[in-house]
């Protein structure tokens, strides 16, 4: 796993999303929406995995509809569910675009579920954050972090390291996404494994850690919800940093977003064109929009780290210091994807079997 430096993150909501479009237009930022005809792309584009609560997709979809006239419905699948649905529907695709943790894009390509399309702007994305043939392209990234609800901890100190979560005082208070079902869960395992001295060929440190974490009462739901960290139902949730910031600043939750001081990783999310999807022309317009200056700005407004451009100062001032983020490493996506199946089998047998 190698270290790759990337740019950082932004934040708008509802009407603010459309206001941001006007500001960007006035500033001369491009809003690339592709070269397809409006008639060909008219109607609806279905992206599996585009929840309102995730990465500012609600505002991104609204801004795209305002600009293009194309509707992208809300879809609450996670990465694993998206891959499974596309596999089941391979002979009769229902989706146009898939969004997922990048390793799932690699697997989908192997299964013949997606086809190459490099969105406009992909030329600015680092080579190791996209497939050479355009079968998947990273749209943004986060960092595996601890979302800590201080009120729910009842006066306990905020944990700062992975080992802190194993302490008796946090028994039954830790939640994380199932590594076999969700991208953030798999990247959580990668973060722990790296922090504990493991590698893509040696996952035993992570397995040992999760065994201890389970013994301390930790739970791994198929779908975790950041709002439950905000409400205190999850006193400690291991998730992407941007979900914590969104709860803290947009929902006024009493949260600390902790970048583990003993090591973590960046978790990248990619988009892919579904093979033989019902609206390929509209899908290409949507994917172009996600990589456009406007799309990247809107993602960043939800504290998501863009792959094109940089994070504005008003958001950067709200998140963890640069020194803490410098410790977050990127992973070799292809390498991580190649061993994902083996790790999931080992994890299931050892932890959730």
TrEMBL record:
Keywords: Signal
Top-level taxon of origin: Bacteria
Record's keyword annotation contains Chloroplast: no
Gene3D superfamilies hit by this protein: Periplasmic binding protein-like II
UniProt entry tagged with the keyword Ribosomal protein: no
Protein name stated in the entry: Extracellular solute-binding protein
């Amino acid at each position: 796993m190698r270290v790759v430096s990337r740019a950082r993150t932004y934040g708008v909501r509802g009407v603010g999303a459309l206001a941001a479009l006007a500001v960007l237009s006035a500033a001369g930022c491009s809003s690339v929406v592709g070269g397809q005809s409006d008639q060909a792309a008219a109607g609806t584009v279905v992206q599996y995995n585009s929840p309102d609560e995730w990465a500012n997709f609600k505002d991104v979809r609204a801004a795209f509809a305002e600009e293009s006239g194309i509707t992208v419905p809300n879809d609450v699948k996670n990465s694993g569910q998206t891959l499974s649905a596309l596999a089941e529907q391979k002979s009769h695709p229902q989706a146009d675009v898939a969004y997922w943790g990048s390793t799932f894009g690699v697997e989908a390509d192997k299964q013949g579920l997606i086809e190459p399309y490099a969105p406009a702007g992909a030329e600015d994305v680092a080579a190791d954050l996209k497939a050479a043939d355009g079968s998947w392209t990273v749209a943004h990234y986060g960092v595996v972090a601890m979302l800590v609800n201080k009120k729910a901890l009842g006066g306990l100190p905020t944990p700062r390291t992975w080992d802190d979560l194993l302490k008796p005082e946090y028994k039954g208070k830790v939640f994380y996404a199932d590594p076999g079902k969700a991208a953030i869960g798999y990247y959580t395992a990668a973060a722990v494994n790296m922090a504990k001295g493991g590698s893509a060929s040696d996952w035993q440190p992570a397995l040992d850690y999760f065994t201890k974490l389970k013994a301390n009462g930790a739970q791994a739901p198929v779908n975790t919800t950041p709002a439950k960290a905000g409400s205190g139902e999850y006193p400690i949730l291991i998730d992407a940093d941007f979900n914590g910031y969104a709860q803290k600043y947009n929902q006024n939750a009493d949260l600390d977003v902790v970048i583990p001081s003993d090591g973590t990783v960046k978790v990248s999310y990619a988009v892919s064109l579904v093979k033989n999807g019902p609206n390929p022309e509209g899908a290409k317009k949507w994917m172009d929009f996600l990589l456009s200056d406007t799309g990247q700005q809107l993602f960043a407004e939800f504290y998501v780290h863009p792959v094109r451009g940089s994070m504005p100062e008003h958001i950067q001032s709200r998140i963890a210091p640069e020194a803490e983020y410098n410790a977050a490493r990127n992973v070799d996506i292809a390498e991580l994807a190649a061993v994902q199946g083996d790790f999931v089998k080992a994890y299931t047998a050892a932890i959730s079997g």
